[in-house]
């Protein structure tokens, strides 16, 4: 058994457009997941150990760069994902799963071929 047998890939995925700062990555996905699951951007931020003001700023910047809203904010009543937000999150999660499965399968093949 080689020490290389215990190495696993860690892939960081992001989705963007032509705007230089338009990035939907792990952090935005986690915030969206929290909104989807808990109905609150504030709660999503707290669960990540992030200040609400930072989460709000990240979401607003991402929405501005992409040109559409990811979440509907309803003040004291919390937040929900927009249709576009839900679709983008689902696409990100599926793509992330596929990429990680591929990387986990492919890395040992590459290491064994060298």
Report on the architecture of this protein:
The chain is mostly helical. It is built from four helices and four strands; from the N terminus they run E-E-H-H-H-E-E-H. Helix 1 packs across helix 4.
Mean pLDDT: 93
- Our estimate of the beta-strand percent is 5-15%
Low-pLDDT sequence parts: none
Distance between the termini: 15 Å
What's the order of the H and E elements?
EEHHHEEH
Helix-strand category: mainly alpha
Number of strands: 4
Radius of gyration: 17 Å
Q: What share of the residues lie within helices?
A: 55-70%
Largest sheet, spatial ordering of strands: 1-2
How would the global form be characterised?
Answer: elongated
Q: What's the story with the biggest beta sheet?
A: 2 strands, antiparallel
**DSSP summary: helix tally:** 4
């Amino acid at each position: 058994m080689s020490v290389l047998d215990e190495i696993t890939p860690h892939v960081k995925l992001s989705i963007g457009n032509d705007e230089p700062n338009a990035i939907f990555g792990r952090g935005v996905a986690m915030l969206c997941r929290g909104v989807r699951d808990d109905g609150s951007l504030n709660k999503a931020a707290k669960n990540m150990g992030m200040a609400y003001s930072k989460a709000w700023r990240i979401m607003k910047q991402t929405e501005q760069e992409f040109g559409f809203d990811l979440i509907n904010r309803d003040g004291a009543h919390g937040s929900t994902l927009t249709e576009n937000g839900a679709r983008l999150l689902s696409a990100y999660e599926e793509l992330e799963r596929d990429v990680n499965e591929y990387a986990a399968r492919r890395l040992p093949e590459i290491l064994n071929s060298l």
